[in-house]
C-alpha cells in the first residue's frame, strides 16, 4: 500500500538518526529551548553577535547541515532525491520535534512514491492533512478510491500504472485538483470519456492522458470543452492522435488551451485552424501509416551476388527472409 511504502521511505531517510533528530550531538540546544527559563538562544545565535561555544561532544547546526549537504558525506542523500526529502532532513536537524513520529504527517505537503511496487492507495493517506502533491508513478495501481485521497490535493500523478477505470476516482475527487496525470495507463474510450468534465474536476489546469487507448476524438473533445480552466493537455500516443486533422481540430475546439502535446499554441496556429471545429465531417475514424525502411543491417544484399554462368553445374543456394513489424 501507499502508506506502507511511505513509512518505509521515512525510515530510510533516518529522520531520528545522526545527524538528524535528537541525541547526544545536540541535546543541550533543545534542552535550553524547553527549559523553564525559556527564550534561550541556540548555539551560534548569540544576540550580542558573538558565537557561542558548542558543548563538548556536540555539533553545531551548521556542522550537522554540512554532513547532509556534502556529496561525499556518508549521510548525504542521493542527487536524484526529491526536494521534499531534502526539506524533511533539514527540519530534522533544525527542528527535530516537528518531524518526530506522527508530527511529520502535519508538515508533509508533497509525497513521492515512485517505482515501489505499490498496488493499493489506502485510507492511511488521509492522515496527511496538508498533502497537496501526490506522485505515484511507475507502480502497479489499477484502482483508486477517491475517499482515500486527502481533500487538499492539487497534484495527482499516476503515470505508468495499470489504471483502466476512473469510476472510483471520480466518486468524490479532490475538489482543488489542478493536475491529473494518467499517462501510460490502460484507459479506453469512449467508456472513460465521460469522466473528464467540470463536474468532477472544476479546477483542473493540466491533464495528461498520453499513451492510453482513446479513439473517439469528437466524443472526448465534447467532454473536455466543459473544463473551463484547462490550459495544458497531452493526448499523444493515443490512436486518435493519428487522425490527420487531430491537432487542428483540438486547437480550434478548445480555445482556452495554451499547450497541446508539449507544444505551445500560438496565435498563428489558432488563425490557421480557425473554423475547423465546425467541420466534424473532416474527422475520419481511420488513419494511414507510411513506414519507410532506410537501411537493414545483418542481411546479405542480393544485388551483390555474382551471377552464375549459363550451364554451370555449381550448386545454387537460396536465401529467404521474413521481416515482421509490430505496431
TrEMBL record:
The keyword Transcription regulation does not apply. Keywords: Leucine-rich repeat, Repeat. Signal peptide: none annotated. The keyword Repressor does not apply. Pfam families: LRR_1 (PF00560). GO terms for cellular component: cytoplasm. This is LRC43 protein.
